[in-house]
Amino acid sequence: MDNCIFCKILREEIPAQKIYEDDDLIAFNDINPAASVHFLIIPRTHIASLMECEKSDQQLLGKMLLLAPTLAKEQGCTDGFRTIINTGRVGGQEVFHLHIHIIGSKDRLPAMI
Ligand code: 5GP
Ligand code: ZN
Q1: Nearest residue CA, atom 13 of ligand 1?
Q2: ipTM of the assembly?
Q3: How many other CB atoms are found less than 10 A from the CB of residue 76?
Protein backbone atom coordinates (compact mmCIF):
# COMPACT_ATOMS: atom_id res chain seq x y z
CA MET A 1 0.00 0.00 0.00
CA ASP A 2 1.65 3.16 -1.28
CA ASN A 3 0.60 5.62 1.41
CA CYS A 4 0.56 3.33 4.43
CA ILE A 5 3.16 4.50 6.95
CA PHE A 6 3.79 0.98 8.25
CA CYS A 7 4.23 -0.35 4.71
CA LYS A 8 6.80 2.43 4.27
CA ILE A 9 8.60 1.16 7.38
CA LEU A 10 8.46 -2.36 5.92
CA ARG A 11 9.97 -1.09 2.66
CA GLU A 12 12.56 0.85 4.72
CA GLU A 13 11.45 4.11 3.10
CA ILE A 14 11.18 5.60 6.56
CA PRO A 15 13.32 4.57 9.53
CA ALA A 16 12.15 2.68 12.59
CA GLN A 17 13.85 1.15 15.60
CA LYS A 18 13.28 -2.47 14.70
CA ILE A 19 13.50 -5.03 17.49
CA TYR A 20 12.46 -8.14 15.54
CA GLU A 21 11.79 -9.37 12.02
CA ASP A 22 11.03 -12.61 10.27
CA ASP A 23 9.33 -13.68 7.02
CA ASP A 24 5.85 -12.75 8.28
CA LEU A 25 6.21 -10.05 10.96
CA ILE A 26 8.27 -7.14 12.13
CA ALA A 27 8.30 -5.36 15.50
CA PHE A 28 9.56 -1.85 16.16
CA ASN A 29 9.40 0.79 18.87
CA ASP A 30 6.48 3.19 18.82
CA ILE A 31 7.54 6.70 17.81
CA ASN A 32 5.43 8.20 20.60
CA PRO A 33 5.79 5.75 23.49
CA ALA A 34 3.06 5.63 26.13
CA ALA A 35 5.43 4.00 28.66
CA SER A 36 9.07 2.97 29.00
CA VAL A 37 8.42 -0.08 26.80
CA HIS A 38 6.11 0.45 23.83
CA PHE A 39 6.53 -1.44 20.62
CA LEU A 40 4.30 -2.61 17.78
CA ILE A 41 4.07 -5.98 16.06
CA ILE A 42 2.83 -5.82 12.48
CA PRO A 43 2.39 -8.33 9.66
CA ARG A 44 4.38 -7.83 6.45
CA THR A 45 1.08 -8.21 4.59
CA HIS A 46 -1.01 -5.05 4.53
CA ILE A 47 -4.21 -5.85 6.45
CA ALA A 48 -6.07 -2.66 7.36
CA SER A 49 -7.41 -3.77 10.73
CA LEU A 50 -8.70 -6.68 12.78
CA MET A 51 -12.06 -6.14 11.06
CA GLU A 52 -10.52 -7.12 7.72
CA CYS A 53 -9.00 -10.35 9.05
CA GLU A 54 -10.28 -13.61 7.66
CA LYS A 55 -10.14 -17.27 8.60
CA SER A 56 -7.02 -17.60 6.44
CA ASP A 57 -5.27 -15.11 8.76
CA GLN A 58 -5.69 -17.36 11.79
CA GLN A 59 -2.11 -18.62 11.79
CA LEU A 60 -0.68 -15.14 11.27
CA LEU A 61 -2.77 -13.69 14.11
CA GLY A 62 -1.68 -16.50 16.41
CA LYS A 63 1.94 -15.88 15.49
CA MET A 64 1.57 -12.15 16.23
CA LEU A 65 0.03 -12.84 19.63
CA LEU A 66 2.60 -15.47 20.60
CA LEU A 67 5.45 -13.15 19.66
CA ALA A 68 4.20 -10.54 22.14
CA PRO A 69 5.37 -12.24 25.38
CA THR A 70 8.64 -13.35 23.82
CA LEU A 71 9.59 -9.83 22.80
CA ALA A 72 8.09 -8.25 25.92
CA LYS A 73 10.34 -10.39 28.11
CA GLU A 74 13.35 -9.49 25.95
CA GLN A 75 12.46 -5.81 26.46
CA GLY A 76 12.46 -6.30 30.25
CA CYS A 77 8.74 -6.80 30.89
CA THR A 78 9.19 -9.69 33.30
CA ASP A 79 6.17 -8.76 35.47
CA GLY A 80 3.66 -8.35 32.68
CA PHE A 81 2.63 -5.96 29.99
CA ARG A 82 -0.45 -4.73 28.15
CA THR A 83 -1.48 -5.68 24.63
CA ILE A 84 -3.81 -3.38 22.70
CA ILE A 85 -5.30 -3.66 19.22
CA ASN A 86 -7.18 -0.49 18.32
CA THR A 87 -9.74 -1.27 15.63
CA GLY A 88 -11.48 1.22 13.38
CA ARG A 89 -12.74 4.72 14.13
CA VAL A 90 -14.50 3.80 17.38
CA GLY A 91 -11.45 1.89 18.57
CA GLY A 92 -9.27 4.94 18.02
CA GLN A 93 -7.16 3.34 15.29
CA GLU A 94 -4.91 5.89 13.60
CA VAL A 95 -2.74 3.74 11.38
CA PHE A 96 -4.77 1.38 9.22
CA HIS A 97 -2.23 -1.41 9.02
CA LEU A 98 -2.97 -4.11 11.61
CA HIS A 99 -0.74 -3.82 14.68
CA ILE A 100 -0.56 -4.98 18.26
CA HIS A 101 0.72 -2.47 20.81
CA ILE A 102 2.84 -3.98 23.59
CA ILE A 103 3.21 -1.60 26.48
CA GLY A 104 5.17 -2.22 29.65
CA SER A 105 6.59 -0.42 32.62
CA LYS A 106 8.34 -1.06 35.92
CA ASP A 107 5.14 0.01 37.69
CA ARG A 108 1.53 -1.00 37.25
CA LEU A 109 0.00 0.72 34.23
CA PRO A 110 -3.04 2.96 34.80
CA ALA A 111 -6.42 1.31 34.44
CA MET A 112 -8.18 1.66 31.13
CA ILE A 113 -11.73 1.14 29.89
P1 5GP B 1 -3.18 3.21 16.58
O2 5GP B 1 -3.93 4.32 17.23
O3 5GP B 1 -3.40 3.15 15.10
O4 5GP B 1 -3.43 1.90 17.26
O5 5GP B 1 -1.67 3.52 16.86
C6 5GP B 1 -0.72 3.84 15.89
C7 5GP B 1 0.60 3.96 16.61
O8 5GP B 1 1.60 4.12 15.62
C9 5GP B 1 0.70 5.19 17.54
O10 5GP B 1 1.02 4.75 18.85
C11 5GP B 1 1.80 6.03 16.91
O12 5GP B 1 2.62 6.65 17.87
C13 5GP B 1 2.56 5.01 16.08
N14 5GP B 1 3.20 5.57 14.91
C15 5GP B 1 2.61 6.40 13.98
N16 5GP B 1 3.49 6.72 13.03
C17 5GP B 1 4.65 6.09 13.33
C18 5GP B 1 5.94 6.07 12.70
O19 5GP B 1 6.18 6.66 11.66
N20 5GP B 1 6.89 5.31 13.30
C21 5GP B 1 6.65 4.62 14.44
N22 5GP B 1 7.67 3.92 14.96
N23 5GP B 1 5.46 4.62 15.08
C24 5GP B 1 4.47 5.36 14.52
ZN1 ZN C 1 0.40 -1.10 5.28
Answers
A1: 30
A2: 0.99
A3: 13
| Known catalytic residue at 101 | no
Among 4, 11, 40, 47, the mutation site with the greatest number of ligand 1 atoms within 8 A of its Cβ is 40
Q: Residue 71 C-alpha to ligand 2 middle, in angstroms?
A: 22
What is the domain partition of the chain in residue ranges?
5-104
CATH superfamily of this structure's domain 5-104:
HIT-like (3.30.428.10)
- Reported as a single tens digit per residue, the pLDDT across 88-99 is 999 999 999 999
Cβ–Cβ < 8 Å for 78, 15: no
Q: Which residues contact 54 (CB under 8 A, 6 or more apart)?
A: none
Instruction: Determine which helix (DSSP H) or strand (DSSP E) holds 16, and give its type and residue range.
Output: none
Centre of ligand 1 to C-alpha 33, Å, is 9
Whole-model pTM above 0.90? yes
Residues in CB range of 104: below 8 A, 6 or more apart: 35, 36, 37, 38, 72, 75, 76, 77, 80, 81, 82
95 lines ligand 1 (CB under 6 A): yes
